[in-house]
Amino acid sequence: MTATIRRQSAHPPLGARTPARNEDFFDEAQLAELRAYSRPRKKVDLAAKVVVGAIDLALIFLLDLGPEVAGWVDGAPWPVQLVVVAGLFALISQVLLLPVEWWATMVHDRRHGLSNQSTGLWVGDQVKGLVLNLVLSALLLVPIFWAIRTFDTWWLVGGLLFLGIALFLNFVYPVLIMPRFNKFTPMEPGPLRTRIEEIAELADTSIEGVYTMDGSKRSRRGNAFVAGFGPTKRVVVYDTMLHGPEGPAFPLEQIAQVVAHEIGHYRLNHIPKTFPLAGLQMLITLAFVQYVVGSDTVLGWAGVDDLGDPGAAPLFLLGLGLPMAALGLVSAWVSRRNEREADLEALELLGDPTSFVAMWPSFVALNKADLEPGWWDRLNASHPGVAERMQFGLDWADMNGVPASAPEIAAVPERS
């Protein structure tokens, strides 16, 4: 089947789950192996969130961290005070999480054959991450605190500032930030690059180039994505998808499915479409900060008199997290719908549901995907479950009379 079926095919609902069972695609031994990886991670991550959250609350409301640190640089311009306070707060949180990060990457992931990261690279990533966090915090907080100190309805101005900064970061991220962590090499001419360029042309989408990313220096996990806007838009394929222990990790047509899905996001303008929702959510979040967190009572608990005081930065950051956790459920639902829509784009564009379904077990084996998330994780998931996506492809094929078959459970690849 060719692209003539695009935008005209029958398909399962995009806004609701496709009924599916893991047992239809994975045997119990495979599910047990995935549980052995994911369950300890989830338990440790939850414990870390509880501990760090409790310490953050103590620092803000019991030790008055914000005004105390601001006092260390009293007399300096308020932006300097703000960066110092927010930077120290971020540093404390990162230091608290270092043992968990070390265990997750250097112990647990290595035990399960995922991590390739050296100690030096891990330490370097932590340092780079902290510096990046400080720079981005300053880039976001200084303009918003300027609005707080200048306007009564600062949350309206702050929401617009946030949206503008987010647009700027999405434009420069692939060319300024990502290369600080990974090396991007133009893909050599060959069948895969030719296939990717054909897919982009078939989707009426222009791309700046096709690149390989050296993901293997950190992990055996694999993926492909499209990053950037306009002149910076490029297709990126992890090298782990190209080179396995016994040859190519993924067949060409399975990689083509991933690329068609990612290009589908761009053809459907999913990223620009999310900006209005993100802007609205930020307005609601900042209004919450203004009228709840910025109340005299809460400010008094944190030892500050005014929300525009640099010493209020930790309280401000804490206040952002509360409504964002609730509003994130809406974003997650929208994201899952967009993912289904991009899956549909790949199915309609390439007309190859067999390869579409076959790539998911390969991803599960490569990435140790969590196939059994809890109810809260499911609500917050940005992507539908793997079994659901496989069933979506089979149902689409059945609705449109396209021949398709699921891989035999015994044929699902195992990776060590």
Give a verbal description of the structure.
- With 416 residues, this protein is mainly alpha-helical.
- Helix content is 64%, strand content 4%.
- It is built from 13 helices and 4 strands.
- It has helices at 28-62, 65-72, 78-111, 119-150, 154-177, 191-202, 252-267, 270-293, 296-301, 313-350, 353-367, 375-380, 386-400, and strands spanning 184-186, 209-213, 224-227, 234-238.
- The chain has a 4-stranded mixed sheet with strand order 1-2-4-3, sandwiched between helices.
- A hairpin with a 6-residue loop joins strand 3 (224-227) and strand 4 (234-238).
- The radius of gyration is 23 Å and the shape is globular.
- The two termini are 36 Å apart.
Key traits:
416 residues; mainly alpha; 4 strands
Note the topology.
Blueprint: H1 28-62, H2 65-72, H3 78-111, H4 119-150, H5 154-177, E1 184-186, H6 191-202, E2 209-213, E3 224-227, E4 234-238, H7 252-267, H8 270-293, H9 296-301, H10 313-350, H11 353-367, H12 375-380, H13 386-400
Parallel strand pairs: 2-4
Antiparallel strand pairs: 1-2, 3-4
Helix pairs in contact: 1-3, 2-3, 3-4, 4-5, 5-8, 6-7, 7-10, 7-11, 8-10, 10-13, 11-13
The run of helices and strands is HHHHHEHEEEHHHHHHH
**What topology, given as strand order, has the largest sheet?**
1-2-4-3
> Main β-sheet, in a few words?
4 strands, mixed
In whole angstroms, how far apart are the ends?
36 Å
In which range does the helix fraction lie? 55-70%
Query: DSSP strand (E) fraction?
Result: under 5%
Query: Number of DSSP strands?
Result: 4
The helix tally amounts to 13
- Report low-confidence residues grouped into runs of 5 or more: none
The averaged pLDDT comes out at 90
Gyration radius, in Å: 23 Å
- Give the class from helix and strand content and strand pairing: mainly alpha
Instruction: Choose one word for the global shape.
Output: globular
